[in-house]
Write a structure and sequence with these properties.
- It comes from Aquincola tertiaricarbonis.
- This is DUF3138 family protein.
- InterPro entries: DUF3138 (IPR021485).
- It is a single chain.
- The protein is α+β, with helices and mostly antiparallel strands and 472 residues long.
- The protein is 17% helix and 39% strand.
- The protein has helices spanning 8-22, 30-49, 52-65, 72-94, 170-174, 222-226; strands at 100-106, 109-113, 118-122, 146-153, 159-164, 180-188, 194-202, 231-241, 244-253, 266-274, 279-291, 313-327, 330-341, 357-369, 374-384, 418-430, 433-444, 449-450, 457-458, 460-471.
- Strands 1-4-5-6-7-8-9-10-11-12-13-14-15-16-17-20 form a 16-stranded antiparallel β-barrel. Strands 18-19 form a two-stranded antiparallel sheet.
- Helix 1 packs antiparallel against helix 2.
- The longest helix has 23 residues, at 72-94.
Length: 472
Amino acid sequence: MRSWQRHPLAQAALLALGSALAGPVSAQSVADLVQEIQALKARVAELEARPQAPAAATTTTAAKTAQWGMTPEQAAELNRVQLKTEALEDAREAMGFKGLKISGYVDPTYIYNKAQNRAGFQFLNRVDTNSGGDGYNYDNSYFGAAVIDFQKETDSGTRWRLTLAPNRGVGSVFDTNSPIHEASVSVPLPDSQIRLIAGQLPDWSGYEFLPATQNKLITHNLLFDFTLPTAYTGAGVELADGKWIYKAVLANMNTSQRSSGNKSPVLAYRADYAKGEFSGFGFAGVHGTTANPRYAVQDADGQALFPDRVGHDTRVDLFEVDGYFTRGDWTVQGQASVGRQRDAAIALASDGSFQDAKWWGLSGLVAYKWTPRFETTARLDYLANHWNGGGLLTFATADSRNGIGPGVNGDPQRGANRSALTLGASYLFNPSTTFKAEYRLDRASQPVFEDVKTGEFKKANHLLGASVLVAF
């Protein structure tokens, strides 16, 4: 309990009252004394109230100064935090981190291939056959990768991208040991609606994406593996016009540098239309000249069969349309492709001349999410490739692993048509981890799959796959 202390002015008033009472009582009546006492009490009350007024005013002023319910100490701490934040932002910009995004993933994969009599993990394995790899195949495409992606956008709107994928990116497929999957720039001309694009760009055809983070299954469809380009090295433009996005480049296809005597690039283009929030379609094409693998075929001794043709490019024409519908738990995607390359067929004509490789194909995918974490997927592919003994883009000889070319003891002028049914499931274990599994049945119209254990050729092959995809 707080003790009450008399004010000095109140003490003086009481002394004056004592002096008055000390005089003769007869000098004034009792009524006069009562009035004086009441007056003195009122004066004391007034004097005692005066010191509290400045304190109340001070409190009001402090309340106005300490806004948002903060004390002066809290306001000072806020100022210090603001200064530190500004310093960190300045340092981040000075070191080039402003507008920088870093992402990546790894997806160790297990593959069982019945015809190849092989089962085991695939991770960071080489593609280049000259470096111990086994080439690009449907059971050994881009999965089993470790990828890191750097993207940066400057204040001017220029975008820069570098994606590294050692042994597993497009660079390792067409440029042997290159770890570069993508190295590109995008510059607004003069605004973000029209942009200059240049560098090494992975192919953009089809409904299926290359990265495992954007692919519902482990393997890719037949059209992706055998009928589409790998990458482009060149420059072009990208235009955004309402619901349409167009892009086109003049580039080298599947090579970072043209060989001697080859001067003509390809024109590669793509257009996408977003019909609404849930659906859209697009088309892509390539027209020009590119390397002809048929000219590079060697005999058993490693000697070129056509030394005068080695290194020469031939005409290629590719076109595809694709579309998608994604709403709720359902995803539906589809693609149709057609292609032709001059002098690239597997079989020679009866007079020994080269023939054109021709093909067309269809691919469709349906996926359904049973829960927000669990999804199942079915994909069906068909590839017609029977003309002139077969032959596909970059595949100009019979291939008993991928099922390309004429069947054993069959008509050498008739290649095998291919199909594949793939069933898969994925489970989102946590926001950065996905478990995948799939079963794939590949079939051909002729016995073109070699069973390496028995040496027999069959019309079908079975594949099982599983992977753990961890991304950030």
